[in-house]
Amino acid sequence: MATRRARLKYRRILLKLSGEAFANRATGESLDPAVFADMAQQLKRVRALGADVAIVVGGGNIFRGLPGEKSGIDRTTGDHMGMLATVINSLALQSALEHVGLHTRVMSAINMPAVAEPFIRRRAVRHLEKGRIVIIGAGTGNPFFTTDSAAALRASEIEADALLKATKVDGIYTADPVKDPTARRFARLTYQEALTRRLKIMDAAAFSLCMENHIPIIVFDFFKKNEIFRALRGEPAGTLVTN
b or e along 111-126 (b: 16 or more beta carbons within 10 Å of the residue's beta carbon)? Predict the structure, then answer.
């Protein structure tokens, strides 16, 4: 294990998974078992390399607070509904990971002891030291904060070596590559460039928090073969945001 860890540039990571990643794009199904199975196999290989893994999950495949305002749901209520959606995703991911023999803990920023442990920094770090994958749900536990901000916060708290943000595209572009075929991908950016350009891949609070705590951000396509392993080894993968 020590030899394998020595090959890694980032030995403790915070992986941010969007809720949309759990859905079946073809059928519109919110939770796709095949997606969870693929994630579980990839994360099993990541753990085999010796990396400590914490995961913050989104809930956009089930509910988003901000769009909910258009349906007459006030923002605070909608954000709390979105937090509960992230816990649903966390439990589904836990089941998939444990199915392939990984040890996990689900921790929540909202107290719900029947289904998850409360998020306590020291306890989360201890789980990581014992080789467990820590899945963190309910965002920060507060409305008006995105799960990207939660990922940056938790990465700072557990002293992660890097924040890996898994997306549907292979990095950060000058524009939406789906809508603009001339969009150019950045191989590397500084935090300040990301903030100045107002790139929408993460919110400003998340970029700022990582900048203050010197946590590099790697934005990559989780489903691109071996991309996460290249990222862990410090090889070119997606877009690197750093000082």
Answer: eeeeebbebeeeebbe
Query: How far is the C-alpha of 167 from the C-alpha of 221, rounded, in Å?
Result: 5
Instruction: Output DSSP code: residue 210.
Output: H
The mean of the pLDDT values for the chain is 92
The DSSP bridge pattern shows strands 185-186 and 172-173 to be antiparallel
Q: Judge contact between 31 and 86, C-beta under 8 A.
A: no
Number of H helices, E strands in the chain: 9, 11
CATH of the domain at 148: 3.40.1160.10
Q: What is the pLDDT of residues 204-239, one digit of tens each?
A: 999 999 999 999 999 999 989 999 999 999 999 999
Containing structural domain, residue 173 = 2-242
pLDDT digits (tens, 9 = 90+) for 96-143: 999 999 999 999 999 999 999 999 999 999 999 999 999 999 999 999
Q: With contact defined as beta carbons under 8 Å apart, do 195 and 14 qualify?
A: no
Q: What pTM does this model have?
A: 0.93
Q: In angstroms, how far is CA 208 from the centroid of its own chain?
A: 17
Tokens of 197: 């350009």
Our count of domains for the chain comes to: 1
- For residue 80, the number of C-alpha atoms closer than 13 Å in the C-beta half-sphere is 6
